[in-house]
Design goal:
Radius of gyration: 19 Å
Distance between the termini: 18 Å
Number of helices: 10
Number of domains: 2
CATH architecture of the largest domain: 3-Layer(aba) Sandwich
Largest sheet: 6 strands, parallel
Number of strands: 9
Helix content: 25-40%
Strand content: 15-25%
């Protein structure tokens, strides 16, 4: 791993006063106990019924089943804590800002670990498990700009007896509340929290792209990869599996992020 640490540290150091963009996927949270989404591990979240359950159409058809499915997954996610990779990315942000550079972390993850670790320049492009929103577009607590902290919603009645009568409802308009996440039949620009305008600007202005734990299977990663190839921007991927992260102009570092990133930050601090 020594050679990879030196290679990435040198590339990061060369972005002197420029824009460093980090894009994280589910792999960065595996060490926190969160299964990957499309990975090969037995607990991969999307291994079954991917395009059916994680959709607005499924929620509208069966909101009770949708809420039950998400509660079973989000309870565990919200109980977890950041790992060494999340903390190292906070240190990388501080290091980059202290030397006058720009930094942005774009995560595909809906877990709260980046913000719990202390990341500040953060966009959660797929939403967040610790928030909910009204399903009525235009409501104060709905799209395109509203949401609520999940811990402000009383879910006890629904947990005891999951039914339509007990679905959590919006205090403003009495509409059903929903997960504050981007579903597969929705678009990045449907809610301001997804930060799509800023993401596009970052793809156009990055001087180095660092992917961490992503399978390159969604639109946001394709946006960044195409922009990097077009502009010939240095592009690295930290992925112990590495199979999904091969491609032109992409340097793959096949090590767990929680091992590699702290070593890179140690090298940068010397």
């Amino acid at each position: 791993m020594v050679d990879e640490v030196r290679e990435l540290a040198a590339a990061l150091d060369a972005v002197d006063g420029g824009m460093l963009v980090v894009v994280t996927g589910a792999g960065v949270s595996v060490a926190s106990g969160v299964p990957t989404f499309r990975g090969t591990d037995p607990g991969a979240i999307w291994k079954r019924d991917l395009t059916e359950l994680a959709t607005r159409s499924f929620f509208e058809r069966d909101p009770v089943a949708s809420w039950t499915w998400y509660l079973a997954r989000f309870d565990g996610i919200l109980a977890g804590e950041p790992n060494a990779a999340h903390r190292a990315l906070v240190d990388l942000e501080v290091w980059q800002r202290d030397r006058g550079g720009d930094f942005l972390l774009v995560t595909q993850n809906i877990d709260p670990y980046h913000e719990r670790a202390g990341s500040r320049e953060l966009i959660k492009v797929h939403g967040s498990a610790d928030r909910v929103r009204c399903s009525t577009t235009g409501c104060t607590y709905g799209a395109p700009s509203g949401s609520l902290p999940r811990d402000e919603i009383d879910l006890s009645t629904f947990r005891r007896e999951p039914s339509r009568a007990n679905l959590p409802r919006c205090s403003e308009c009495a509409g059903w509340l929903r997960q504050h996440v981007l579903w597969f039949d929705e678009y990045y620009n449907e809610h301001r929290d997804y930060g799509w305008d800023r993401v596009q600007a970052a793809a156009a202005g990055a001087d180095l792209l660092l992917f961490v734990g992503t399978s390159f299977s969604v639109g946001v990663t394709e946006l960044f990869r195409q922009a990097a190839q077009l502009r010939r921007v240095p592009c690295f991927s930290i992925d112990p599996g590495a199979e999904a992260a091969r491609g032109p102009g992409l340097t793959t570092l096949a090590h767990p992020a929680e091992d590699l990133l702290p070593s890179v930050l140690e090298a940068l601090s010397r």
